[in-house]
Prior knowledge:
The chain has helices at residues 9-14, 31-40, 92-101, 122-133, 156-161, 165-179, 195-208, 219-230, 273-287, 304-307, 325-344, and strands at residues 47-51, 59-63, 70-73, 111-117, 137-150, 184-189, 233-240, 243-253, 256-264, 293-295, 310-320. By secondary structure, it is an alpha+beta fold. It folds into 2 domains: 9-145 and 312-344, Aminopeptidase, CATH 3.40.630; 181-291, 3-Layer(aba) Sandwich (Aminopeptidase). A hairpin with a 2-residue loop joins β8 and β9.
Amino acid sequence: MNSLLFVSPQTFASGLTAGIDDPAVDPHLTPGWFSLLAQTALPKGAQVAGLGGASSARLFLMHTPEQPGKLLSLSTYYSPIFGLCGADPAEEAHLTDQLSCLRERRYGFHEARVQPMVVESLDWAVVSRCFQSAGWVVDRYFCFGNWYLQTNALSYQDYLAQRPGALRSTIRRAHTKLKRHPDFQLDIVTGESGLSAAIADYAAVYQKSWKLPEPYPEFIPGLCRLAAEQGWLRLGIARLDGSPIAAQLWLVAGDKAMIVKLAYDGEYAHTSVGTVLTAHLMQYVIDVDKVSEVDYLMGDDHYKRDWMSDRRERYGLIAFNLRFAAGVAGLARHRLGKIKRVLFR
């Protein structure tokens, strides 16, 4: 694939190297993830390219009709993290040359945004360094807070003992009430057996929840199937009288569990079934998977601090091409915005 040739998402996905992803790599940085994202969850008319050496880690960028003149990372609101794809070190000289080429006026790119990233990571250092060396003016911006749990080798019962009393009480009371129903059931699907029915149950719950319909309805079912193939899947379903009333999609890779999607039928909100299902999955990943970290991924929702132990932040890298007036204006707006935030703070 010509690394400066932007192609359709389908063509891009077909050019990715197939095979089993490294279990130690974050699922959101694997070829399987980027392929799924490209095929099911990009805006109409998006074009994608892979930058970097053919045998090294790659930087996947795209541009869309909705944001002309802007280079964007191959990430959407489904992406809790973004970085280079590939286990080998990036060929920085090659990547720098390509980013320098993309500054040329014939391409028309005046701004680039790469997000969300871990500022302390090697990927951030490499991408930032290559953009700067290629002549872009680089800065960063805040994306979102990220709550996570360090399990510290505790059992689930020891972990639970450290949670706020109100949460422990809710779990205990709600679980006791739900167990009185002879047809209440909690299941966790981890492989391909029973997966189709579980995906259908998840979709049924989501449709009856408070959440807006998925703009890309093929993405979550595709992620469930990919996760089952790779051994990442922890799809929890709560059923009452044979009908699904709550569903949660978690991923487990290496020693880390990630909470991707939560939903429950609004008719059963009073039962706190969502809290009960979260506790059930938490017990599974701590006592069975024995993870060292549980990650709530995106957002500072208040309820997350009850379950988690720590908070960190994710940032985006923004780069301006000063060969264009739009790039100069964008840099001015960005810096003025930072000054205003400091003053008002």
